[in-house]
Amino acid sequence: MSDYKDIIRKPETLNWFKAAMGMNITRHCLLDIVKDATQELYDTIRKEINRKYGILEHVVCSQCHTPNVLPCDTDNKCCHYKYGSCAFHDIHKSQHCRANLCNEMCKEIVYHHRFRNRSKSKSFQGPTWENTDARKWCADPWNIAKCYLSKDGYKDVNKADDADFNGMVNVLINCEFFQMYFKDDLTQKENVCTKARDVGREVRHAPAMSMISQDSDRAIDTLVALLQSL
Questions:
Q1: Are 74 and 126 contacting, i.e. CB atoms less than 8 angstroms apart?
Q2: Backbone CA torsion sign across 9, 15, 19, 25
């Protein structure tokens, strides 16, 4: 036990703790913004579908599963063919929404993805369809935001409050709609959000939960810059 007390008192451990707390505070500050913006994203999608196809905004659907409205294509990163059939579409086949709504919502989700034009690139992640449930798109806009989370570890994150710092930042990076909330240009390869994401990785993967003071100070400065850009 005395060994652990010594570790906790080490300046390097305190530096790491300071950076970790900075991440937690930043996540808390981002949470309400992500919630409000996700609702606004849903409203914007519905207005656009109404403009294009005349589908009124009070029309909802809760019957379409995600595979129903997603074309079967390996570019979706969730369609895997084995013995001539796709496991993702094995139960729920591609079909057109009876309300003429969900297929168009699917297209709008793709449209708002920052990397939608890189579908042939190996680095393309695209909307993470495995995370979301199309049956909930009209009732719970967070299920739309989940399309912009990374693939691993977020399928069961069923509300924004349960998303970690990395999840919050990934939504901001991957969904172009969030640009309106930032002064910084998020189209740049390096921006306040990508730098904050890198800080998150450094803190999570810090050996023995320790950091030198220069690294922890840089981490805090990066997080402050993210919040100041809002």
A1: no
A2: positive
How does pLDDT run across 73-83, given as a tens digit for each residue?
Answer: 887 888 888 77
Among residues 21, 15, 4, 10, the alpha carbon closest in space to that of 211 is found at 15
Residue 61, domain extent: 12-228
> How many structural domains is the chain composed of?
1
Residue 3 lies in a domain: no
- Distance CA(30)–CA(202), nearest Å, equals 20
The answer to the question of residue 5 being in a domain is no
Q: Residue 133 and residue 139: Cα distance in Å, rounded?
A: 11
Which pTM value belongs to this model? 0.90
Residue at 6 is within a domain: no
Rounded Cα gap, residues 19 and 176, in angstroms: 28
Q: Are 204 and 16 in contact (CB under 8 A)?
A: no
Strand spans (E) along the chain: 81-82, 85-86
Backbone angles phi, psi at 169, to 5 degrees: -65, -35
Name which of 74, 97, 96, 100 is nearest 87 in CA terms: 74
- Cβ atoms 102, 64 nearer than 8 A: yes
Gap between the Cα atoms of 127 and 150, Å rounded:
9
Q: Is residue 99 part of a domain?
A: yes
Greatest CA span in the chain, whole angstroms? Answer: 69
Tell me the per-residue pLDDT of 149-187, one tens digit each, with 9 for 90 and over. 988 889 999 999 999 999 999 999 999 999 999 999 999
The CA-to-CA distance between both ends of the chain, in Å, stands at: 44
Helices (H) and strands (E) counted in the chain, each on its own, are 8, 2
